[in-house]
């Protein structure tokens, strides 16, 4: 089997690659800058850009399965190239928000999924919820002040380790058993912000404080954020107050083991907080 990994230098794609190599899959990695890809030995690295479909034909040649990230409005063009090249399956990296109605981010990801489904190729959709890596946004303030100031402590989220996402993607690529499945991924615990910070504190072996502030204070203290990003985050957290993110069964069901706890993720990333 040969698999094409798009977004091969991204958070998930870079981790999918070694899983596939370990499973004996021939891996071709698509990246805009092959010279800086720094991928494992044995990976065929090829230049291309999903938003420029004319660059993609060589990447899809003799490929069986594609791991596909969203390609803006080019998904149908990309899947047509895949179909013409003889690709049989596409595994998408979508988002849990694709399951929400009247959600701009969700609409974008659901449109992406639907474009893949219209290709008439076999497909599997992987929908991660909140990535634990989002907590790296706190890395600088934890380094400098050991204090995180943010609103809505009780907005519970279930952060998922990026390694778990990559492992589910690899399982979907290497087995036909997942054709037509939609997997929504979470971590094993739905946690308040203070509980998330406690996990980071335990991982680095130093106290980290949480101070709850108002949304207005948070906006003032984060002037670098575009207003639409601030609006989205505040809305996301407010929704989680009313409807805490659930712990979902798809990671353990697919992998045959529990999802990775946030403490383990924080230990994997502790140097970034020190």
Descriptive notes:
The chain has helices at 13-22, 57-60, 75-85, 104-117, 139-145, 162-174, 193-204, 215-221, 227-242, 250-255, 262-268; strands at 2-5, 26-31, 44-47, 65-69, 89-93, 122-128, 147-150, 182-185, 209-212. With 274 residues, it is an alpha/beta fold. The chain folds into 2 domains: 2-128, Rossmann fold (3-Layer(aba) Sandwich); 133-158 and 188-246 and 261-273, UDP-galactose 4-epimerase, domain 1 (Alpha-Beta Complex), CATH 3.90.25. The strands form 2 sheets. Strands 3-2-1-4-5-6-8 form a 7-stranded parallel sheet, with helices on both faces. The chain has a two-stranded parallel sheet with strand order 7-9.
Question: Which parts are unreliable, with pLDDT below 50 for 5 consecutive residues or more?
Answer: none
Helix and strand element order: EHEEHEHEHEHEHEHEHHHH
Strand order of the largest sheet: 3-2-1-4-5-6-8
CATH architecture call of the largest domain: 3-Layer(aba) Sandwich
The biggest beta sheet is recorded as: 7 strands, parallel
**Head-to-tail CA distance between termini:** 42 Å
CATH level 1 name of the largest domain: Alpha Beta
**CATH fold name of the largest domain, please?**
Rossmann fold
Structural class: alpha/beta
- Number of domains as seen in the coordinates: 2
In round numbers, the mean pLDDT is: 96
Structural shape: globular
């Amino acid at each position: 089997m040969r698999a094409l990994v798009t977004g091969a230098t991204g958070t998930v794609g870079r981790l999918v690659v070694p899983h596939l190599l370990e499973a004996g899959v021939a891996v071709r990695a698509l990246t805009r800058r092959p010279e800086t890809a720094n991928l494992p030995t044995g990976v065929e690295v090829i230049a291309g850009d999903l938003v420029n479909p004319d660059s993609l034909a060589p990447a899809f040649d003799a490929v069986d399965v594609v791991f596909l990230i969203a390609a803006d409005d080019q998904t149908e063009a990309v899947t047509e190239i895949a179909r013409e090249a003889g690709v049989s399956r596409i595994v998408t990296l979508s988002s849990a928000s694709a399951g929400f109605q009247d959600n701009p981010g969700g609409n974008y990801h659901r449109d992406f999924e639907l474009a893949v489904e219209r290709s008439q190729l076999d497909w599997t959709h992987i929908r991660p919820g909140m990535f634990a890596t989002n907590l790296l946004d706190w890395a600088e303030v934890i380094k400098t002040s050991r204090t995180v100031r943010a609103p809505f402590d009780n907005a519970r989220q279930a952060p998922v380790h990026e390694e778990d996402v990559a492992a589910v993607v690899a399982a979907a690529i290497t087995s036909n058993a997942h054709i037509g499945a939609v997997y929504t991924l979470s971590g094993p615990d739905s946690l308040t912000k203070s509980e998330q910070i406690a996990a980071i504190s335990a991982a680095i072996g130093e106290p980290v404080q949480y101070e709850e502030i108002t949304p207005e204070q948070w906006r003032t203290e984060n002037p670098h954020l575009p207003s639409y990003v601030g609006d989205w985050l505040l809305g996301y957290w407010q929704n989680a107050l009313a409807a805490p993110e659930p712990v979902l069964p798809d990671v353990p069901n697919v992998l045959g083991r529990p999802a990775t706890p946030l403490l383990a993720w924080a230990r994997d990333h502790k140097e970034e907080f020190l």
